[in-house]
Amino acid sequence: MSSYSLQDLLYLMTRLRDPLDGCPWDRQQDFSSIAPYTIEESYELADAIAAGDFSQIREELGDVLFQVVFYAQMGAEQKQFNFDDIVSGLVNKLVKRHPHVFPQGELQRRAGTAVADSDELTQSWERIKAEERQGKKQHSAMDDIPLNFPALSRAVKLQKRAAGDGFDWPHIDGVFEKLQEEMAELMAARIENQQQTIEEELGDVLFSCVNLARHLRVDPETALRAANHKFEQRYRYIEQQLEQAGASTSSAELEQLDQLWDEAKRKGY
User: How far apart are CA 242 and CA 252, in angstroms?
Assistant: First the structure.
């Protein structure tokens, strides 16, 4: 296998987008058409990380990098920005957001000022980002939180921003009480059998669950992904056991399915 550099990748991208002899598919893409692929590649990278497959992680990182290079090429074609502009902007932003490492505000190779702990770092990071939003004339703490985020991740972002302004439960007990309150409202909506109200109240329950996860210092997206995996593994076990017995999940009694589920749990699935 040949060995290539970043400059080779940038050249490859210009060739793919060449209007005369480039790739027809690559030439017809624009920012909007590429965006769904960027999201897809990011999820594939997350899957590879969750699986601990470093060979796959390396490959998926390449796919994500290609997305950045693709956007850089389209930006250069429109004379808006190029790859170097992206890198320069990123380095400047990261230097600014890490004053504990770069106290002079420049990329200098020397030790910075020590910071007490990760909580202090987080507070500093959020404070700097708030200053950046003001510089962009984004005056609300809710500004610049992407609408296309997965709902769980966006809920975390919204709650963190509000908490940064002091709008938060002072103790986790309040979060548990709020979750119980939302559950009661959902049960009442179910009794009333109003579908729109049920959906709204269920959304409030999920939002409260995210808030609970945040207070427990658990990423809800990661927790739910793990729960999905656990459910899938246990259900596959049920299917396998029934298949060996010449049956299927659709023909088995619920009691038998429950027994196999418990058996899967005991075996560590």
Answer: 8
